[in-house]
Amino acid sequence: MNTPDVIVIGGGTGGYSTALRAADLGLDVVLVERDKVGGTCLHRGCVPSKAMLHAAELVDGIAEARERWGVKATLDAVDWPALVATRDDIVARNHRGVEAHLAKAGVRVLRGSGRLTGARSVRVEGPSAPGAQELTARRGIVLATGSRPRTLPGLEPDGRRVVTSDDALFAPGLPASVLVLGGGAIGVEYASFHRSLGAEVTLVEAAERILPLEDADVSRHLTRGLRKRGVDVRAGAHLLDAEVLDDGVRVRVRDSRGEIRTVEAERLLVAVGRVPVTEGLDLAAAGLATDGRGFLAPADWQRLETAVPGVHVVGDLLPPPSLGLAHASFAEGLLVAETLAGVGSVPVDYGAVPRVTYSAPQTASVGLTEAEARARGHEVVVSGMPLTAVAKGMVHGQGGMVKVVAEAGGGPVLGVHLVGPHVSEMIAESQLIVGWDAWPSDVARHVHAHPTLSEAVGETFLALAGRGLHRQ
Q1: 250 - beta bridge partners?
Q2: Nearest CA to 222 among 23, 403, 78?
């Protein structure tokens, strides 16, 4: 019982996917989790936030129905407790599903904190291990302890006036106004959600544009869409100080022109990134150490194995090129499980992992931005099209665009970038195009359904292949 093949510490997406795949391959697996299996993504991130964003989409739909389509719909109010109950039910059902999958696979789940005592040994303390339990892995240990929101010195979250992304969903009620600090995917999503539900929203980003890691045209179109909805987007702005008041917060911000502005809001949401969680692991006991940023870098990216043989790492503990995305963690878990089982596995192709921001409008991208492609020495050709150039885009009426970056002279597609309604559901095609090094001419011969938003993707590739009829 105390010498399983594999010990996984951390039951988030990366951890439980490792455990399930390893068990599926016939290995004896112990999964150690101090909270609930499913991790941040299921309980405090991806799943509950997207449930709330769906509710926000419904609210926006009522306004569109009335103002654009002549449907005399009205919104009396948002029943916050009912909304929360539906969100929590979705999370609970997913949680029960993960637990059932683990049980069916024969994975032994230990509730408690895991601490390394050697390169192959773990000490577990907690409800499932009264008095502590010593385990030794025959094949290897997988570290999957995830990340937590980054905080700022002197700006400690209190769960009410100053909140992080982890607790923003669970803050009491809806604020009338919110200042979101951080214009990455998480900050943009929360800004979008609060605006849909009626809050006055200020979005502050220190970089020169929001979503600074995405293509510049994606940032530009998203900024335009958010401002059209009434979000006060302030890029190139820096927080100087913040004061918590009885009824809200007051912050001073230096904007991109050097002017100092004071902004007051009921709530300050800090979304300035996440940091790996390694406290309590006692990495040194296994001969491990984090890098200067707190990540645990693998010595072998092909196997995600650290410098200590048999110790692997998945998920948010990994530095770039890992993306800190749940679906990337899932793929990493499969890779590590197959490696430990001695099964041939293909390393994760991070360049073909899609990136999605579930705001209104949404963004979805895969591959290189135009600037990245040029910086890497590619001679590129770029083709783009507004979504409103196709009939379904006009129906939705939210604007947006398709942008494709390809190697000049008929070479492979290097990146695809989308902004607009439902583009999160459109990125899978582009993921295959980039992942399989397809050329525009390869894609252009495939017929896209009409009328659809994806038609704009097809038209863009037709244009790159010299066959386009709707050139802008």
Answers
A1: 243, 264
A2: 403
The CA distances from residue 48 to 39, 54, 81, 169, in Å, are 12, 10, 14, 8
Q: Which residues lie below 8 Å from residue 95, measured CB to CB, with a gap of 6+?
A: 36, 37, 38, 42, 43
pTM: 0.94
Note the pLDDT of residue 470.
Answer: 67
What order of strands is seen across the sheet that includes strand 362-367? 355-357, 362-367, 413-420, 401-407, 380-386
Q: Angle at Cα 285 formed by Cα 281 and Cα 290, nearest 5°?
A: 60
- Integer angstrom CA distances of residue 235 from 181, 238, 255, 458: 10, 9, 8, 33
Strand partners, 200: 177
Q: How far apart are CA 66 and CA 47, in angstroms?
A: 29
pLDDT digits (tens, 9 = 90+) for 80-91: 999 999 999 999
- Given this model, what pLDDT does residue 187 score? 97
Closest to 90 (Cα-Cα) out of 192, 191, 175, 169: 169
Examine residue 149 and say whether the peptide bond preceding it is cis (omega within 30 degrees of 0): no
pLDDT, tens digit (0-9, with 9 covering 90-100), for 223-240: 999 999 999 999 999 999
| 450: annotated active-site residue | yes
122, 29 Cβ separation under 8 angstroms: no
CA 296 – CA 288 distance, rounded (Å): 8
Output b/e per residue, 51-76; b: 16+ Cβ within 10 A: bbbebbbebbeeeeeeeeeeeeeeee
Cα–chain center distance at 364: 11
Alpha helices (H) along 348-390:
370-375
Q: What percent of the chain has pLDDT over 70?
A: 99
Count other C-beta atoms under 10 Å from residue 211's C-beta.
26
**Residues 43, 221, 446, 450: which is the catalytic one?**
450
CA distance 402 to 320: 26
Q: For residue 373, which amino acid is it?
A: A
Fill in the amino acid letter for 262.
Answer: T
pLDDT digits (tens, 9 = 90+) for 356-405: 999 999 999 999 999 999 999 999 999 999 999 999 999 998 889 999 99
Per-residue pLDDT reduced to its tens digit, 160-196 = 899 999 888 888 888 999 999 999 999 999 999 999 9
